[in-house]
Amino acid sequence: MLEDKHIIEALGKAQVTIENGKVTSITQPEIDYCPIFGKYHNIQKLTKEEIRKNIEYRIADFGMCTKDRVLKMDDMLSVGISEILRSNVELGNIDCVVGACEGTGTLLMTDADLVQGVGGRVSGLVSTTPIPEIIEQVGRENILDPETAELNQLKGLEMAIDKGYKNIAVTILPCPMVKQLREYPVDDDVNVYIFVAHTTGTSVDETKMLFETADIVTACSSKNIIEYAQIKKPYYYGESVPIYAISEDGRRLLDVRLNHINKPSSTNEYPQDLDKMSKPLK
């Protein structure tokens, strides 16, 4: 029998382990309050019990980390990384997203609804094992390694380039590989856009690296990213959980989403109101 074990970062950077469709472990969350879960799920204090209930709801609702996973969906938030990607894929600005999905590992996606359903419903994926039914849905040819469900976004970028994609977005958690993605040699007609999510707990050095290499970075509950943004003043959208457009490409892709849903374009008006953000910032 294949091992069935998936570890995700969720709700305040707690690590949640799901095995055979059951939550088997939850670490202590690093923050007490998240505006998104406060608004959409009425969770006013992040505890292990609240996290367990939310994860069990996801498993029951759309089959997260199980063979019953529903992969495609419409918009979830008005503006998040998956929504930005969804609009830009739909409008033809991005022809491939190198993402990560439980049960497949690193995955190439060209369908806007798949991009939304994979990225919008699962928090940061730390590790995963193959789920044959999910692999069948997305196609083995689109998975970096169907036998192991390896998570490696640099290899995923290489795979996307080998398949001939030209405008490639890569989603990734904060790590040294972000810099490797930016330094990866590509032809003049290939564009690589780097989207960094789940940044709570990002160090000072990591923050500076992200501002030098990424295109779009979510603030999450990162004290260092939010404070560094006050200095660098990138364009952004959102008050409680800002999304920063670090580069001009990032700003263009962010504004495409905002214009697509009739929202005002991104702004670089500072300082931000820190009282509306997660508590505490970490």
Quick rundown:
The protein is an alpha/beta fold.
Task: Quickly list its features.
alpha/beta; four-stranded antiparallel sheet; 10 helices
Shape: globular
What would you report as the Rg, rounded to the nearest angstrom?
A: 18 Å
Percent strand equals: 15-25%
The percent range for helix content is 25-40%
Q: Could you tell me the number of beta strands?
A: 11
Strand order of the largest sheet: 5-4-7-8-9-11-10
Structural class call reads alpha/beta
- The helix tally amounts to 10
Order of helices and strands: EEEHHHEEHEHHEHEHEHEEH
Biggest β-sheet: count, sense, barrel?
7 strands, mixed
For the terminal residues, how far apart are their CA atoms?
Answer: 40 Å
Q: How confident overall, as mean pLDDT?
A: 95
Q: Layout of SSEs?
A:
Layout: E1 5-10, E2 14-19, E3 22-26, H1 35-41, H2 48-62, H3 81-90, E4 96-101, E5 105-109, H4 112-119, E6 124-127, H5 132-138, H6 153-162, E7 167-172, H7 177-183, E8 191-196, H8 204-213, E9 216-218, H9 223-232, E10 235-237, E11 243-245, H10 248-260
Parallel strand pairs: 4-7, 7-8, 8-9
Antiparallel strand pairs: 1-2, 1-6, 2-3, 4-5, 9-11, 10-11
